[in-house]
Amino acid sequence: MDIVEKLGNAGVVPVVVLDKAEDAVPTAKALLAGGVDVMEITFRTAAAADSIAAVAKECPEMVVGAGTVITLEQCEKAVECGAKFIVSPGYSDEVVAWCVENGVAITPGCVTPTEIMAAMSHGLKVVKFFPANVYGGLNAMKALSGPFGSMKFIPTGGVNGQNLGEYIAAPFIHAVGGSWLCSKGDIAAHAFDKITRLCQEARQAVLGFEVAHIGINTASDEASMDVCQGLKDAFGFEIKTGNSSNFASSAVEVMKSMYLGQNGHIAVKTNSIARAAVELEKHGFQLDESTAKYKGEKMIAVYLKQEFGGFAVHLLQK
């Protein structure tokens, strides 16, 4: 898995401003405890280089990058210290060309068609969109994704815990960046438990797990309709017929055969099956790739290998 893909799977890229290098490792550990394994340490302070070096050495599980990289000199210094990716607020052809030539992941700031085309000329597929709240936010990125359908964005500026879900659900968003996960004040106060909690909340918003419906296994079309009719008689649920199943309301699917799961299945919607798969694997759950359904090249549904209380679980792409 390459670095840019890791940023996408994380969903959130904390923008970390460190005034003291000794705070770098405790901050990284707080982020990791909250389920976030990427961090962008900005080159705005004198402690940046030492902070990157400390995290790279002491927290190998953290993918640390350098942000606010404006010059080639800063870029080279950051990589020398252990930065695995470079983030710049604007587009510098010199910095981008050096990173591409040296195999270093880079997401330059691009908010105009001209800048995006320049990034594409170097083979980049993900760019930073900064400041997002000034340059039109989601509406602007949606418009840009029309002519540049293969380009994904990492918006920073104006993204926070309240609107994260709205941003991350958009198909042209690769990840979001922001400092709300670990503010300078929280780092200075050593409020690492708070940083961990904010990361946990952000990860839940990124994944967007919610129950879509419950599936019940039956042996035949007739048995399926009997269950649906019973639910309609009892609760007034409308019946919708289908090829392999019938629905009683949108919340109960009644299968026409004994499909996966001893009793049936639970459908769970998510903002991203790819991100969900990475998260689930951390907890020992695997996808059953043989059950995957696709729309074009994009996976839109897949079952897990494990059952829960006699119910299979399948993920649905929102």
From TrEMBL:
Source domain of life: Bacteria
UniProt xrefs under SUPFAM superfamilies: Aldolase
Pathway assigned in UniProt: Carbohydrate acid metabolism; 2-dehydro-3-deoxy-D-gluconate degradation; D-glyceraldehyde 3-phosphate and pyruvate from 2-dehydro-3-deoxy-D-gluconate: step 2/2
Any one GO MF annotation of this record: 2-dehydro-3-deoxy-phosphogluconate aldolase activity
Assigned EC number: 4.1.2.14
Name of one Pfam family that matches: Aldolase
Keyword terms of this UniProt record: Carbohydrate metabolism, Lyase, Schiff base
Signal sequence interval, chain numbering: none
This protein's record includes keyword Lyase: yes
TM spans (from-to): none
Catalytic activity of the protein: 2-dehydro-3-deoxy-6-phospho-D-gluconate = D-glyceraldehyde 3-phosphate + pyruvate
Similarity section: Belongs to the KHG/KDPG aldolase family.
Assembly: Homotrimer.
Protein name, entry field: 2-dehydro-3-deoxy-phosphogluconate aldolase
Species the sequence originates in: Flintibacter hominis
